[in-house]
Design a protein that fits this description.
This protein is of the alpha/beta class. It has eleven helices and twelve strands. It has two domains: about 1-140 and about 280-328, 3-Layer(aba) Sandwich (Isopropylmalate Dehydrogenase), CATH 3.40.718; about 140-275, 3-Layer(aba) Sandwich (Isopropylmalate Dehydrogenase), CATH 3.40.718.10.
Length: about 325
Amino acid sequence: MTAPPLALTMGEPAGIGPEITLAAWRAVRAAGPAFCVLGDPALYAGAKVAVIETPEQAAAAFPDALPVIPLTLAAPAIPGRLDPRNAPAVIASIERAVGYAKAGRVGGVVTNPIQKSVLTATGFPHPGHTEFLGELAGTGQPPVMMLACPGLRVVPVTIHMSLKRAAAELTTEAIVTQGRIVAAALRRDFGIAVPRLVVAGLNPHAGEDGTMGREDIEIVAPAVAALREAGIAARGPLPADTLFTPRARATYDCALCMYHDQALIPVKTLDMDGGVNVTLGLSIVRTSPDHGTALDIAGKGLADPGSLIAALRMAGEMAAMRAKDTTR
């Protein structure tokens, strides 16, 4: 465990974050990647905790105890019961983790799920993690959400909006911008020398030559042409109903999808418990589990840590790729 540790944020303290954190630590403590948690030590009473002051102390403690950099909650966390008084500590955990990553003191940031409604009620102005991280660690380009599981990576070009709004706001420029960011990230963070992108059509059958809508002709096809002119191996628009079969998935490295569910349904169908949310286009590595706070099962010992474990391992691999890139 010679690489810098990862920083794992606290997430919503009343959700499943604390218990999947403990389970993930138990699963990876022998082989890594090492990580430190930024949270209230009281959340992790079910394990041996090492309260540390700096991330540099995490690796030595990690095999025997969960390293925690303390952030004290304003109110005791009760599983399943949200308390807005703890929102500032949740936000501070993210901010501090990003600060450590930008300073090179951790290899990357892995975020536990947050409860957006609680943060919004206390004045948090961002729709979610991705937008907040774009503010904290942006590079002048929009952050891009990629969902990944073994055998599939997808990127929704439009995200948290109604289907009607997504169709209205989809632009050629947005597809091209995200395609460029995705291709660069696949090269830098995943070691894919020549990334292969496919672009899903917006309409059924990719518009059926305009008989089911002209968006694929007038918006999507020009974007694919622009990506190809930029030297990116891109194909499309392709019908989404056949884009995620085993045979099709073997022909590309990432699929650009036109709206939220078009991208997330195949990932969650293939691997609901092991999917990872990756934010591309940042100055730091960031991953997270592909699920929410699961308040209904919090504290009951039912939460599956698989997605968090996958997110930690992917962040470790991405951090290693970035470190290798800087030494070339």
